[in-house]
Amino acid sequence: MLYTKVVEAYEKIEATTKRLEMTDLLTQLFKQTPKDEIDRLVYLTQGKVHPDYMGIELGLAEKLVIRVLAQATGLSEDEVTALWKKKGDLGLVAQDAIAARRQKPLESKPLTLAKVYENLDEIARSGGAGSQERKITLLADLLAFATPVEAKYIVRTVVGKMRLGVADMTIVDALAATFATKQDRAAVERAYNVSSDLGEVARLLASEGLAGLKKVGLKLYRPIRAMLCERMETLEEILKRLGKCALEYKYDGLRVQAHIGPKGIKLFSRHLEEITDQFPDLVDGLKGAFRRGAGIVEGEAVPVDPNTGEFLPFQTVSRRRGRKYDVEVMMKEYPVSLFLFDCLLEEDEDLTGRPYVERRARLHKALKENERVRFATYRDTDDVKEAEAFFDTALQIGGEGLVAKALNSTYEAGARGYQWIKFKRDYAAAMSDTVDLVVVGAFAGRGKRAGTYGALLMAAYDKDDDVFRTVCKLGSGFDDATLEALPKRLAPHRRDRKPARVDSKLEPDVWFEPAVVLEVLGAEITLSPVHTAGQDLVRPGAGFAIRFPRFTGKWREDKGPEDATTVQEIREMYDRQKKVAKP
Ligand code: ATP
Predict the structure, then answer these.
(1) Do domains 228-424 and 435-581 have the same CATH topology?
(2) What is the Cα–Cα distance from 554 to 579, expressed in whole angstroms?
(3) Could you read off the pLDDT of 304-360 as tens digits, one per residue?
(4) Which is the CATH superfamily of the domain at 435-581?
């Protein structure tokens, strides 16, 4: 397949913000793709060469790409850098520079999808001595024959910023429409939720049709997408809905999926990234605790104060990224404990289809607790008074609340449903639950904040239309150090104009591609003519806004923009708040 066919479709996809239109364009593209190339096309459309959990990532340093662009076009590196500063997108720079290139290639050989993938894959895999030169050669090899538009997408892919705006679930829709019918979407989504690998799903669908997806099962060292919770306002309602159920402490940390087997232990985040290197203490703890040959268990990693034994704020775990030295220092200063609450695989047996109580019993038999690895505290009950008292103790130990689980519930990968219901502190009060919002813009600071940002423009995710709609300007809750670091921290996502998937009536000083998610606590949800989330839903011309928003200090690094609080959830919170307000 010619790469030019692919980028023709990408151009149309980039130009639309409508999810249905994107799905149709993708479907048309998939239909024209040879079966044995579909997986590669899917990865490239996601802006990658492999599923995340493999850790084989592109993301070439921009400096290196500038050097290659200079070589390929005859411009100087300074000229390319100047263009980049002006446009803010190396892909666009590549497009223009290739169009105006001073030295045209002597012969032109059209690029194929296979060739582009092969070179990008090798770039991603190259490491060690001499790898830099190798990467340069591989990229130069592609750019030598690329058309301007092809160059734009090749460069965007290598620097790890595709900007197509295609969410994974849009690819799921398109795969269902291409290889089955829209009604079969659930089967395709399930396969994705279990395998975390859209390329593999595409490959199986293309070669064996829907029947092929039945083969997708749980596999050691390949993370499964996490089961999530719904929320409810009162314990009474929860118990009414679930009857006798298990209440577990809701720990406030980082969700960890541990794969333990003959090839050692691998830890994955809720984001499906491998995080083993960040938690050598947990790896050791699990080694000592696990009594079987193989298994997959899930829990929440919580930092513990070694002096008091109390839980510490969640941020102390998220700071464990980066260099080995930091991890070692952090490990001593803020050791973590993993509170396990599920067992998905034991030896060769997939337990996800088994009821919760059985999985819990298997979990408790498969491990012996130690300081680093514990079981989540639980209580099975249908008594509201008992539940309330249990909730109080959960808060006392530093938990966030409770998660109620239906005793007979199976593990539904990637699903957010009422089999698991979370109940957090002060739910019944107006808006005491936090929301996770996406940074889409910033306003320059004045006075004391000159030189940094005065406020961030925050958005909720509109799942139906796959866009981000604004709900507030966020200016409080930042300490001085965070404030100072904000421009740098957000710089990689900076854009010169409004990103396609952002819907805003306000015009901030800088725009950001939806990427960074912050936890925000507000006083109340109000209607406002300024914000676009839920526009016209309650009153014509008005959307939902969060009043008195405050940053809680928690960067939700474990969440992608599509995992942020949705407009639909804000609407539910608004409706609930009104119910509470009425006597
Ligand atoms: P929140 O922002 O409220 O933590 P979330 O959007 O991150 O929620 P939810 O599905 O709403 O995710 O809440 C479930 C999260 O709570 C899980 O992903 C997990 O990280 C954490 N958690 C803590 N304790 C438990 C537990 N006992 N059982 C399940 N999840 C738990």
Answers:
(1) no
(2) 29
(3) 866 656 677 777 676 666 556 677 777 777 789 999 999 999 999 999 999 999 999
(4) Nucleic acid-binding proteins (2.40.50.140)
